Amino acid sequence: MTPEExxxxxxxxxxxxxxxxxxxxxxxxxxxxxxxxEESTKARPPEGSPIPNWRYLSGGPFFSRxxxxxxxxxxxxxxxxxxxxxxxxxxxxxxxxxxxxxxMTGGVNNSPAIVRPTIWTYxxxxxxxxxxxxxxxxxxxxxxxxxxxxxxxxxxxxxTIDWLWRDGKQGKHVYPxxxxxxxxxxxNASMEVSRFLSEETITYGRDKKYxxxxxxxxxxxxxxxxxxxLYALGIRDVYLLGADFTMSxxxxxxxxxxxxxxxxxxxxxxxKQLDALCQELLPTFEEAGxxxxxxxxxxxxxxxxxxxxxxALTLASGNVPQELDTxxxxxx
Length: 332
Known about the structure:
Blueprint: H1 3-8, H2 11-43, E1 62-63, E2 80-84, E3 104-108, E4 119-121, H3 131-135, E5 140-144, H4 145-148, E6 154-157, E7 160-163, E8 182-185, E9 187-188, E10 202-203, E11 205-206, H5 208-214, E12 219-220, H6 222-232, E13 237-241, H7 261-288, E14 291-294, H8 309-317
Parallel strand pairs: 2-3, 2-13, 3-4, 4-5, 5-8, 9-10, 13-14
Antiparallel strand pairs: 1-8, 6-7, 11-12
Helix pairs in contact: 2-7
């Protein structure tokens, strides 16, 4: 299609073609991930005992880099967590308070470009996220188990993004298992509100196949994933930042990243679906004592109650002293 033919198309037709392009690219990425996963399983023998095939893991949801079960269910018991998403409203806020003692932060995707998180996760291919996150030992990273040894990473050098090679040698990919502070989690794409918090695995939505089976649209999102992840780690109080839940192609994220018009339209559609989902989840959260507040100014997410950011900082830091009076502690 020539540029002139494209200009003459009505907006509906353009959006349809953009959606088809994004769907095609997503399918190509999934195919690439599957191929790399199969190749790496054969090519990378484990150190010591054989690494189990991730397809046959049970229990969990958490696993070490060697894919052996670990119990992290109470790792952050009693902690409050600021969940930092990617909305551009982050750029309008004073986030220095997140460096207080007692404050824990969670991040998703490339949001660590704005706030360095305590814990971090994602659902897309691992190579879509900055290697500065992967290399940082101070960020506890939660990775889909199939990615630990099966999805290589990339880096940006002199403005060019390319595969991250082991010892600089092409053909020897770097995987999440090669990075510090990594845990795996089992996930599912068959989300049901009734078992969202209780099931062993971490749900990240409904894939197309499961959605068709139950008569609901496809809905895949890191937001659903991280809400369950925080609960599974023992956190019961969550404060949302950067949950704009509305996107424009001119300023889609708080960090540098472009977005097409069609991509923004698709994201806004997902935001509405997620808001409806959270409305459904709210009674389950309340029954479980899982409290989520929205501290994002002007947010399009209406399901969770709003809370002033300053008040949230006070609640989250709790009784943790900001200045440590160390006199006489060794003598007590």
